[in-house]
């Protein structure tokens, strides 16, 4: 492999010699992954490998270097903080003790509170979120930039609705529009779901049956998902989505994709550990809201990746192809090893892409992952490929020691059980960095 | 089966004979359950749906030899079908599963068998499996029908219950008994021709440890 951007190798920085573009760059990145604590280290790496290959300063603070946070100026010149802090959802702007997806991050949060910015739990970041959200017309691009690095859990419901375009950025119209969308969804229930099988087509009956089989085995590790009220909610969301998207219909794995929304929208009404959530406290009206919002947001998410789930799943096939190509360019030894062992990318990455990595990481980290997914918006499928590469190459060294069988077994149950936000954010940041490198230089790293 | 003698001769010097099996059948007929019962001798109602293809491996110690079975567990849902042909091409055994309490899944076995024949011709062992015999009251397909259908296809047949643990070992022993012993040589030549064979058994046993394989 040719060293493509000599300047970048000479960039200042405390990282081990060898440079990011050398053959052993993966080793150094892996070391970084193991050793770096918090985004400060990631920031350095990002600074070093900046855009055009120019040596950029490595002594910038973590905040300035954090992936999409380069828009600091636009944020400071954004609208003044409105005194009307209501965001249309009547949410308290105070963090309650514990949130879903947040159980493993508390320790890290406190550790990183020493660093400037960088963390979703940081007070300055929370203030910036609140400022954006309080605007008469929310600057969704600014919100996107900020959300990319993680959304404070108590703001997630509001932020996700906005990022997906489900809620209106305009504060005046937001509540009425949401009420209308929720009603539209609730009108679908009697129309599509609460009807006798005689009024369904053969295909619809099969689909409903499949959804009925999959609902109880969705997120089996979270007890409240087995509650009848949530089972019904999930089945209706999936079935109504499928009916309204006949090109794909219900595809297994979409059930997984609905779960983060259900959990996040429930978190507006329930506190504490999700294992302890008591749904009996919630009125049917609240459940309906949660259900409608989950449906609306799932629909928006899937709109961007519809061809992942249509016949022969061309969207996934395309991403697998690009994933393989990308790994070949980033880490040729691993790519060669996989090829020599006869391991196809499709064999291990199909589920990654079909379920957007949701099954590959602990559920409490999924919210954090989805902050970035949703912030990517239209660029999401492309970024997903980079994240898959970053995820896979986290284990670059180990993989090269394994044969076909060992590799595929390893990749099927990839060891992320003890991951915290830190490991996940390392994967996301490295993916971001690679995208910057490769997108601006489509072929210069070709190892031909 | 005719070449069994040859197989046991080579087994002493060559790595474990490896065989690839692909599990086919409609959604929710119990493919994953059968494999999990075989691998870990357990049953769980709450498997997540298989997305795409899962891989599992287990070593079987037979009277005259030891074989390693590599199992491809396919997703049953229609949408994932386009993935499956390459796994069928790669497998010397196809296990076609239906649910005895679901007639449609039984009728659809014809499509699966046909797909296997298309990819592999006659160079394949096919086993038809009627699963969920524990659902006595809900049975829609009799054992006689299953047997007749298997004869019709010209394939082997067995009924199982992965929930009750019924006939699961018998299923795999039946398959193992039908494996051609020569396969060890050819599959060995295919992939490992540059590897010192003496090294392989050690690697294999390590791999098995990780895969949770054991004598059955």
Automatic annotation (TrEMBL), chain A:
Domain Rab-GAP TBC: 150-377
SMART domains recorded: TBC
Disordered, as annotated region: 1-26, 46-119
Domain of life: Eukaryota
Listed Gene3D superfamilies: putative rabgap domain of human tbc1 domain family member 14 like domains, Ypt/Rab-GAP domain of gyp1p, domain 1, Ypt/Rab-GAP domain of gyp1p, domain 3
Protein name: Rab-GAP TBC domain-containing protein
One Pfam family hit: RabGAP-TBC
Biased amino acid composition, Polar residues: 67-83, 101-113
A molecular function (GO) term: GTPase activator activity
Keywords from the named record: GTPase activation
SUPFAM superfamilies attached to this UniProt entry: Ypt/Rab-GAP domain of gyp1p
PROSITE patterns, per the entry: TBC_RABGAP (PS50086)
Keyword Protein biosynthesis attached: no
Automatic annotation (TrEMBL), chain B:
Single GO MF descriptor: GTPase activity
SUPFAM superfamilies in the record: P-loop containing nucleoside triphosphate hydrolases
Record's keyword terms, sorted: GTP-binding, Lipoprotein, Nucleotide-binding, Prenylation, Protein transport, Transport
Topology in the lipid bilayer: Lipid-anchor
Family, as annotated: Belongs to the small GTPase superfamily. Rab family.
Record note on quaternary structure: Interacts with the C-terminus of GC5, but not with GC3.
Protein name in UniProt: Rab6
């Amino acid at each position: 492999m040719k060293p493509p951007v000599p300047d970048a190798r000479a960039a200042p920085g405390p990282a081990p010699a060898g440079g990011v573009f050398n053959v052993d760059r993966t080793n150094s990145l892996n070391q970084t992954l193991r050793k770096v604590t918090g985004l400060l280290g990631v920031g350095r790496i990002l600074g070093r490998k900046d855009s055009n290959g120019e040596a950029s300063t490595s002594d910038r603070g973590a905040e300035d270097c954090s992936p999409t946070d380069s828009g600091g100026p636009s944020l400071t010149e954004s609208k003044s903080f409105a005194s009307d802090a209501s965001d249309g959802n009547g949410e308290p702007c105070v963090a309650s003790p514990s949130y879903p997806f947040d159980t493993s991050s508390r320790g890290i949060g406190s550790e990183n509170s020493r660093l400037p910015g960088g963390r979703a739990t940081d007070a300055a970041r929370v203030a910036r979120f609140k400022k954006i959200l309080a605007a008469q017309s929310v600057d969704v691009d600014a919100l996107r930039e900020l959300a990319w690095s993680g959304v404070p859990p108590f703001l997630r419901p509001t932020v996700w609705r906005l990022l997906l375009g489900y809620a209106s950025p305009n504060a005046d119209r937001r509540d009425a529009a949401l009420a209308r969308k929720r009603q539209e969804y609730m009108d679908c229930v009697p129309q599509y779901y609460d009807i006798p099988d005689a009024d369904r087509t053969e295909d619809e009956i099969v689909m409903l049956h499949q959804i009925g089989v999959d609902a109880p085995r969705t997120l089996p590790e979270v007890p409240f998902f087995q509650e009848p009220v949530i089972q019904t909610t999930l089945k209706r969301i999936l079935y109504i989505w499928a009916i309204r998207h006949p090109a794909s219909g219900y595809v297994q794995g979409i059930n997984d994709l609905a779960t983060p929304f259900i959990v996040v929208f429930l978190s507006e009404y329930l506190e504490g550990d999700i294992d302890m959530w008591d749904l009996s406290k919630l009125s049917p009206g609240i459940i309906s809201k949660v259900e409608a919002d989950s449906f609306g947001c799932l629909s928006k998410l899937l709109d961007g990746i519809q061809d992942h789930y249509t016949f022969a799943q061309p969207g996934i096939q395309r991403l697998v192809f690009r994933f393989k190509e990308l790994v070949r360019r980033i880490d040729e030894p691993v790519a060669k090893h996989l090829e020599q062992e006869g391991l196809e990318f499709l064999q291990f990455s199909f589920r990654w892409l079909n379920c957007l990595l949701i099954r590959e990481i602990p559920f409490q980290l999924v919210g954090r992952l989805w902050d970035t997914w949703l912030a990517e918006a239209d660029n999401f499928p492309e970024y997903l490929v980079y994240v898959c590469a970053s995820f896979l190459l986290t284990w670059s060294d180990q993989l090269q020691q394994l044969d076909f069988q060992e590799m595929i077994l390893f990749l099927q149950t990839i060891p992320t059980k003890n991951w915290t936000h830190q490991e996940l954010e390392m994967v996301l940041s490295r993916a971001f960095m690679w995208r910057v490198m490769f997108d601006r230089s489509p072929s210069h790293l070709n190892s031909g | 089966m005719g070449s069994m003698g040859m197989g046991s001769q080579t087994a002493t010097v060559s790595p474990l004979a490896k065989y690839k099996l692909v599990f086919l059948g409609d959604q929710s007929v119990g493919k994953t359950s059968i494999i999990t019962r075989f691998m870990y001798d357990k049953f769980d109602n709450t498997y997540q749906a298989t997305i795409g293809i899962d891989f599992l491996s287990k070593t079987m110690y037979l009277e005259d030899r030891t074989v390693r079975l590599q199992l491809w567990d396919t997703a049953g849902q229609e949408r994932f079908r386009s993935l499956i042909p390459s796994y069928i091409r790669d497998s010397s055994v196809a296990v076609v599963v239906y649910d005895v309490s679901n007639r449609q899944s039984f009728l659809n076995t014809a499509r699966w068998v046909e797909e296997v024949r298309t990819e592999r011709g006659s160079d394949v062992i096919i086993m038809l499996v009627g699963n969920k015999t524990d659902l006595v009251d809900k049975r829609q397909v009799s054992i006689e029908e299953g047997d007749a259908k298997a004869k019709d296809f010209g394939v082997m047949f067995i009924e199982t219950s992965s929930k009750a643990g019924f006939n699961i070992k018998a299923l795999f022993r039946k398959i193992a008994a039908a494996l051609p012993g020569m396969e060890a040589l050819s599959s060995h030549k295919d992939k490992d021709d540059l590897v010192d064979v003496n090294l392989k058994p050690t690697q294999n046993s390590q791999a098995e440890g990780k895969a949770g394989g054991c004598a059955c």
